[in-house]
Amino acid sequence: MVEREPLPRDAIAPGSVIVFYDGVCGFCNGTVRFLAARDRADRFRFAPLQGALARELLLAHDANPSDLDTMYTMVDYGLPTERVFSRARGILRVMRELGGFWSLISLFGVLPDAVLDPAYGLLARNRYRIWGRYDECPLPSPEMRRKFVDTE
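Predicted structure:
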């Protein structure tokens, strides 16, 4: 496979789903690889929370890109319906957007945030201890690199 540079921001198609994740988290990086491998519609793009794109886009939605314990999912990028989901709601939205069998996980969305967010928080607090932490954001594999933005 030909190695490609990460996408420049202006190459992100309107309507894309952007997942903002902690770039040094072992669990987060594994989750992103999982999603990228199953993105049959090629709608997902990924950006670390530590990057300029996350800062710009998330602040525009009153979301805090400095909160590395929070995963954000932006849907309908560049469209009037653009929205940001965070924490457990962000994960559920990603699974819905992934489609197929995986969309069944989004059925947990009927649960209130008072149930979902403590479960998410438990995972977020323990992720480095269980899955490890990188010294810096790892680069994606060459075949996945085209799905990533802001990876300098």
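Summary: The longest strand covers residues 17-21.
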